[in-house]
Amino acid sequence: MFHVALFSMNYFIKTFGCQMNVSDSERIAAFLEEHNFSSSDNIKEADLVIFNTCGIKQTAENRAYSMINNLRKEKKRNVQIIMTGCLANRADVQKRMKSKVDLFFPVKDIKEFENWIIENYLEIGNWKLEIAAPNKITNKENIAYLSINPKYSSNYAAYVPIMTGCNNFCAYCVVPNARGREVSRPAEEIISEIKDLIAKGYKSITLLGQNVNSYKSPTTINYQLSTKNAQKEINFATLLKKINSIPGKFWINFVSSHPKNMDDKLIETVVKSKKVCEWIHLPVQAGDDDILRKMNRRYTQKHYLEQIKKIRAAFKKYKPQHQFSISSDIIVGFPGETKKQFLESAAVMKKSKFDMVFFGQYSPRPETVAWKMKDNVSQKEKVWRENFLNEILKKTAFTNNKKYLNKTLEVLIEKEKGGFYFGKTRTQKNVKLQAKKKGLVGKFTKVLIKKAHAWNLEGEID
Ligand code: SAM
Ligand code: SF4
Ligand code: F3S
Q1: Most confident by average pLDDT, 32-36, 118-122, 143-147, 235-239
Q2: CATH of domain 154-277
Q3: Using CB atoms within 10 A as the burial measure, which of 263, 292, 298, 453 is most buried?
Q4: Per-residue model confidence as pLDDT tens digits over 258-313
Q5: Exposure of 151 by Cβ count < 10 A (0-12 exposed, 13-18 middle, 19+ buried)?
Q6: How far is the CA of 169 from the centre of ligand 3 (A)?
Q7: pTM higher than 0.90, yes or no?
Q8: What is the mean pLDDT of residues 392-418?
Q9: What does the pLDDT read at residue 74?
Q10: Which fold has domain 9-120?
């Protein structure tokens, strides 16, 4: 039996990468606070610094190395440095950083982290730990850490992970190695987390997973919509329906979807569910069929464009009074991508009329299939290609945004700065408006749109 004594150890978490890492950090924070650590806003004052890393591109890796190196150079104080996240279990990273980092742990091995804390802090001075409820984190599966109640960073918008890992092995991508195989979280647990959030007044729920549309609940629960109360598997469309039926006013979003798993049933569910927002993020990655094949994406340009057509038609049919938006991810300069092949990405962009695209200049990643391919598109050419595509995006986004002019939309206000509010529409459009009324952060507000630009809208409270 451990007993709790007074101790004041501070932790600081530096998060790199995507929303999944942000969400993981919220669970690590809660875990540390359960173990009597307190959060510090200042890395310089923390006793324990956790780097939650990202390995998607070399630039993301380098940022983590440089921060860790700088922190280690501060010789005066005794800081423990932990590396978790998507770089933590790579052998080359561990070799490179072993003299700087006290512990490497992939987030799914949070039990190992707990053992390390016990070993390191129980021995020292008067520090004693309160050990977390043992049944909470003893499950050895990858998914167990998701059962920790997170310390959400916002009090009105929450990320809710529904799965982790990935089975797709796109040739360029570290995620399947970094996060392991795809594992879905039980539907009951997801629904219970969301019900709690809504009861606390949360307005926006974003479901997270590398490939949310291949979600499959690991348990079968009583599926009330079916006849005779049969036990049925919960897929992503069913999960969305169940979340949509939770009482209360809130928005539901989800990222990311894979085009090969975007079936008609799911499109129909998205457009028919009132709380699900009118935004679909569908990463295409490339337009050329040969490049898509080399990337191991398992769809063609034709298939992708058909999906876009179906999504547009469904929104127009079921939500004719709403605007909708479609965004994507595109990699420029994948090994061997010729100019002609690159122009197919431009063609897809023109046809899809995206509202937003996140561009990635191809970065070779260790332990991926493409690592062995020659990275033969120059850096200069990658920059040129990204700029070229960005010009197309600017035009399609501006054309789409002009449709919002003189319309009144619901905006969730996210922050106030310099006399202005900044918020988002249900379609993920950034909106700026004068902060004439106080106290609207975290609230739904009706806004009349007066100006449209490519990257944002401007309006006034209606
Ligand atoms: N699971 C999502 C999907 O299938 O689209 C995306 C996951 S990944 C975390 C986010 C984005 O990073 C990808 O969509 C891709 O565009 C980009 N990315 C991944 N690996 C990359 C690499 N080696 N170089 C450049 N961009 C990369
Ligand atoms: Fe990476 Fe592909 Fe999995 Fe997305 S689907 S995480 S790009 S391997
Ligand atoms: Fe990076 Fe891992 Fe996300 S590699 S983008 S933090 S899943």
Answers
A1: 235-239
A2: 3.30.750.210
A3: 292
A4: 999 999 999 999 999 999 999 999 999 999 999 999 999 999 999 999 999 999 99
A5: middle
A6: 14
A7: yes
A8: 98
A9: 81
A10: Rossmann fold (3.40.50)
Provide the pairing of β-strand 356-361 with 457-461.
Answer: unpaired
Domain pair 280-403 / 405-461, same fold = no
Please give the share of the chain, as a percent, with pLDDT higher than 70.
Answer: 90
- Residue ranges lining ligand 1, Cβ < 6 Å: 18, 56-57, 172-173, 175, 210-211, 256, 258, 283, 285, 329, 331, 360, 362-363, 365
Helices assigned H by DSSP within 104-148: 110-121, 134-137
**Protein residue with its CA nearest to atom 1 in ligand 2:** 173
Distance, in Å, from the CA atom of 148 to the CA atom of 161, rounded to the nearest integer, reads 12
What is the domain partition of the chain in residue ranges? 9-120, 154-277, 280-403, 405-461
Q: Which residue, 152, 209, 196, 158, is CA-closest to 30?
A: 152
Q: Which residues contact 380 (CB under 8 A, 6 or more apart)?
A: none
Radius of gyration of the chain (CA): 23
Instruction: Spell out the residues 6+ positions from residue 197 whose beta carbon is closer than 8 angstroms to its own.
Output: 152, 158, 160, 205
Write the burial class of residue 379 (CB in 10 Å: 0-12 exposed, 13-18 middle, 19+ buried): exposed
* 280-403 CATH: 3.30.750.200
The owner of tokens 């004693």 is: 128
Asked if residue 55 has its Cβ within 6 Å of ligand 3, the reply is yes
Under the banding of pLDDT at 50, 70 and 90, the label for residue 140 is very low
Is 405-461 in CATH node 3.30.70.270? no
Say which residue the tokens 């690592």 belong to.
371
Beta carbons of 344 and 283 less than 8 angstroms apart: no
Q: Is 434 helix (H, G, I), strand (E, B) or coil?
A: strand
Amino acid at 344: E
pLDDT digits (tens, 9 = 90+) for 47-79: 999 999 999 999 999 999 999 999 998 866 789
Among 58, 87, 173, which is best to mutate for testing ligand 1, by the most ligand atoms less than 8 A from CB?
Answer: 173
* Predicted local distance difference test score (pLDDT) of residue 231: 54
Structure tokens at 401: 């945004």
